[in-house]
């Protein structure tokens, strides 16, 4: 069996300074637009420079650096690692992980086909996923939060990992971010997780709306970005010019992305179909089907309807890990392909 892994994390709060009210103007993309700053500002086309050079703000002296063992020689690292406490399951912002097991696909190499992925649960170690050879020897193992076997659906257990994320994002707008990501080979059914049969995009939208139903004046907005071959594509509005940016008002975000307001999980379905179709078009335009490598990022932003705040964002990410053989059936240059996908991610 091959394995598909997905997990979730919630980043610590990041405070945002107050911003003046923003008029929506009836646009379908209600992401607050900040005015252009002075040269070198976050919305300037010129490269970012130090604040003292750009003239936008006085330089701020960083706090004194706290020295620790890790700043010393490499010989300190082993001792530092030993002294560091382990992060137990289900505590704090630790990344939680679940694994979906799917029927394996023959590689044509007998020794490889005899290796499989299994799982076991015990009171002492919790749930463990491991790789076993033909006689059952464990070759590698990892502790996880849960496993979906070949007879279960990820959608059936989505409440485990979506519920806490939805409650976190649906809180008061303060630039909080969370992430649900899915990673695996093509043969593992990775694409079914977010935009396929499992429908986690629609499920996440529905849960955020339900968690924030008592909050007046709030709305949920959706965006979809595809990163491939070092290019950023807006899957909901092809004419958008997207850049990765960071500002005090918006935090780390996709500058120029189209945000579509949705009022129910049902509203997200046509947007998912639209982004899936556009993604195929982009891949065809760029590589004529030669490579399917890319990273899809769906954003669900919970914010004030009037644009006074940027809000909180849940990112649903599909991390690509396709096989080295291209969709055309021709093996690609491994070094070039690996470099491309690693840089994109």
TrEMBL record:
Region (Disordered), start-end ranges: 1-92
Family annotation (InterPro entries): Kinesin_motor_dom, Kinesin_motor_dom_sf, P-loop_NTPase
Regions of compositional bias (Polar residues) in chain numbering: 83-92
Coiled coil regions, renumbered to chain: none
A molecular function (GO) term: microtubule motor activity
Residue ranges annotated for the Kinesin motor domain, each copy included: 94-345
Family: Belongs to the TRAFAC class myosin-kinesin ATPase superfamily. Kinesin family.
Protein name (record): Kinesin motor domain-containing protein
Organism of provenance: Haptolina brevifila
């Amino acid at each position: 069996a091959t394995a598909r892994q997905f997990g979730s994390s919630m980043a610590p709060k990041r405070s945002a300074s107050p911003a003046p009210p923003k008029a929506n103007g009836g646009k379908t993309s209600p992401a607050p637009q900040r005015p252009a700053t002075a040269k070198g500002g976050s919305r300037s086309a010129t490269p970012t420079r130090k604040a003292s050079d750009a003239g936008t703000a006085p330089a701020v002296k960083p706090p004194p650096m706290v020295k620790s063992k890790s700043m010393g020689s490499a010989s300190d690292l082993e001792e530092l690692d030993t002294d560091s406490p382990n992060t137990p399951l289900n505590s704090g912002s630790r990344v939680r992980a679940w694994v979906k097991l799917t029927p394996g696909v023959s590689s044509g190499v007998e020794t490889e086909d005899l290796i499989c992925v299994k799982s076991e649960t015990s009171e002492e170690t919790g749930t463990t996923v491991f790789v076993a050879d033909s006689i059952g020897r464990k070759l590698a193992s990892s502790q996880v939060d849960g496993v979906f076997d070949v007879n279960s659906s990820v959608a059936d257990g989505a409440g485990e990992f979506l519920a806490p994320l939805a409650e976190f994002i649906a809180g008061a707008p303060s630039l909080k971010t969370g992430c649900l990501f899915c990673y695996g080979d093509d043969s593992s059914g990775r694409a079914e997780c977010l935009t396929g049969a499992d429908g986690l995009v629609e499920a996440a939208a529905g849960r955020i709306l339900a968690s924030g139903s008592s909050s007046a004046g709030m709305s949920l907005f959706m965006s979809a970005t595809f990163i491939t071959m070092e290019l950023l594509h807006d899957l909901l509005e092809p004419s958008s010019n997207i850049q990765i940016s960071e500002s005090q008002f918006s935090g780390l975000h996709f500058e120029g992305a189209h945000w579509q307001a949705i009022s129910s999980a049902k509203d997200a379905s046509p947007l998912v179909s639209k982004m899936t179709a556009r993604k195929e078009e982009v891949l065809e335009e760029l590589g004529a089907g030669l490579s399917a490598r890319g990273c899809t990022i769906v954003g669900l932003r919970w914010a004030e309807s009037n644009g006074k705040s940027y809000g909180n964002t849940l990112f649903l990410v599909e991390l690509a890990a396709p096989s080295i053989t291209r969709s055309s059936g021709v093996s690609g240059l491994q070094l070039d392909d690996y470099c491309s996908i690693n840089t994109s991610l």
